[in-house]
Structures are given as C-alpha cells and as structure tokens.
Amino acid sequence: MLPSDHPSIASGGIGVLLVNLGTPDAPTPAAVRRYLAEFLSDPRVVEIPAIAWKPILHGIILRTRPAKSAHAYAQVWTDKGSPLAAITAGQAHKLQERLGEGVTVDWAMRYGNPSIPSKLQAMKDGGCERILVAPLYPQFSAATTSSVMDKLADALRAMRWQPAVRILPAYYDDPAYIAALEEDIVAQVAALDFVPEVLLLSYHGMPERTLHLGDPYHCHCRKTSRLLLERLEARLPGVRVETSFQSRFGRAKWLEPATEAVLAAEAASGTRRLVVAAPGFSADCVETLEELAIRGREVFSEAGGERYATLACLNDRGPGMAMLEALVRRELGGWWS
Ligand SMILES: C=CC1=C(C)c2cc3[nH]c(cc4nc(cc5[nH]c(cc1n2)c(C)c5CCC(=O)O)C(CCC(=O)O)=C4C)c(C)c3C=C
Ligand SMILES: [Fe+2]
Ligand SMILES: [Fe+2]
Questions:
Q1: pTM of the predicted model, to two decimals?
Q2: Does the Cβ of 142 fall within 6 Å of ligand 1?
Q3: CA distances (Å), 130 to each of 16, 123, 124, 150, 219, in order?
C-alpha cells in the first residue's frame, strides 16, 4: 500500500528535526572563533544594540575568548567530535528507531553545522511535506527557543514550496520530562559511592534583565526545580535540593544564585558531599563536562568539600529517549499516529 493510501499516514512524508544550540567543528581557536562569531552576533543572544556590541565583540571578545574556550573544548572532545553534536546525533538515531518507518528523524544545530536551512531543505527534497521542529530546550528563552524560530523563519522565507511546520513547545513542566529526570537522577545517585547531602540543580544562566523584560526562562527553571523537588523528596530522603545558574558571560548582572558561588558557599558552610545535575541541558556539552565536572569540582574542593560528582544529562539513554518519543508522538498527533 502506498503511504498516501494508508489511513493513519497523511499524504507526503513526515519529518522530525531535533535542534540544539551548536558547537564548533573542532576544538581549535580558529574553529571556536568562527562558532562564537556566529553565536554572539545573534541579537537574540546578546541584546545590546549592534553599534555598541560589534566593536566589543570584534575588538575584544573574538580576540581573547576563542583560545580560552578552545582549551575547555579540547578537554571534553571525543572521538566522535563535540559531545553536544555526538549526543544529539545519537538522540536522532534512537528516536528514528523508536518511531520506525513513516517518519524521517534528523538533527541540526542553530549555530555551526549541520545548519537548520540545510536540513530543512534535505527533508523537503526527501519528500517531507510536514515537519516537526523540536528545539531541545526544556525551558523557553528568547536566546535559545526564539532564535531557533528566527532561523527557521529565515529558511522558510528562502523556499518556494514550503513544508507545513510544527514546533515542539517548551516542556519544562511536562510530566514526561519530570518523570524522566526523576528516574534518571535517582538511578545515577544510587550508583554513586557516597550519599550526597545536597543535590544542586544547575541551569544555564541569562542576563537578569531578560527576566524583567518578560522572558519566562527563570520561571520555567524554577518550576522544573519545584516539580522535581516534589518527586525527589520521597525518592532521595534527607537530600537537600538547591537551584543555581551557571556560565555567566560578560559584565552585566546574571540570574542568581551563581553555581560557582553556591558550590563555594556550600563547602564553606560545612557541606562535604554534593552532587550536581543540569536538567536544562538535553545533552552533555562543554558547559556540563568542563564547567561543572572539572571547574565546579575544583571550586567545591578548594572551599573544603570532600565528595563531588556531576550527573550525566538525559542524553540518549532510556529515560530521556522515552520522554522525547512521548513528546514527539503527541505533537505529531493528527499527522501520524
Ligand atoms: C551572552 C551570552 C550567552 C547567553 C545569553 C547564553 C544563553 C544560553 N546558552 C544555553 C546553552 C548552551 N550554551 C553553550 C555554550 C555557550 N554559551 C555562551 C554564551 C551565552 N549563552 C558561550 C560563549 C558558549 C560557548 C562556550 C564558551 O565559550 O563558554 C552550550 C554548549 C555548547 C557546546 O558546544 O558544548 C549550551 C548547550 C542556554 C540553554 C541558554 C539560555 C537559556
Ligand atoms: Fe550558552
Ligand atoms: Fe561556560
């Protein structure tokens, strides 16, 4: 039977495009410079008028940061390339296996490669007339989710015969997401060789100003933490759960408390055993593997902490994939079942 004759499959192919932030092509200053130039030129990411920002970006940031960041990337690089790209590719591959024929699953990056326009065109050329774009950001923010929408709109603007498009909404409070985090965190904590006193939930930071401008990101993070805390109270009795924001960039005030400050303050006030999870990251990346796992450990132990561990993100393991499958199947409703 042709797909178009099948009662549960709409005419034309269906595509699912997973999108994450992006990453350099290599852990070298030149590749990191190219990546940062694109990333930090996005007005959704740095909300400073271009006339003021461009001289700072090109005169200072792109002269100094690439070497420093390349060093961080080099410490976490894998034989499959950047962790973020390798894990996102794994997620697409496993989602394809879970959904089976009838849906084409692929992945793209907002900055760098593979780009959103190239993958959108490839899906269209491959016969997909309906495409679900899934930004893998559980918490909505203009710097991430809206930026994916901007890039998608740019790509569609350049197409004559456009596919129909749906977007996966932010899923910060979705029961499937909270359940996946609960299961994954409990299993990873049980496998540690120590019992933590504190579980720190560290989210990527944002300039505090964006909260006052109406960005829901901060509230979404807080709600994820609250829902998770409600579940973890029974599963990890006696473990205190705290929330913080990492990866501060630039001189402006960012969301607080800062992860580094919390790690130092916890150790200074007597916490000896601490574990960090990063529920806002769908995949491990330089921010979790270098900033949390390497530098975070140094901060905690230098302030007197004794046992420290970072938990893996949901990545492409069972609980995270079951969640992605559930969210995507729900969003495809009516197109495919
Ligand atoms: C103005 C600066 C930045 C804002 C705002 C910002 C928001 C933001 N970022 C993520 C997720 C990721 N960020 C990653 C790396 C990264 N982020 C910034 C700056 C801002 N992020 C920089 C300069 C970098 C590059 C690394 C560095 O030089 O420190 C990554 C990892 C990418 C990788 O290749 O591994 C992720 C993921 C979110 C979710 C967010 C706002 C909510
Ligand atoms: Fe970032
Ligand atoms: Fe960082």
A1: 0.96
A2: no
A3: 9, 9, 9, 19, 32
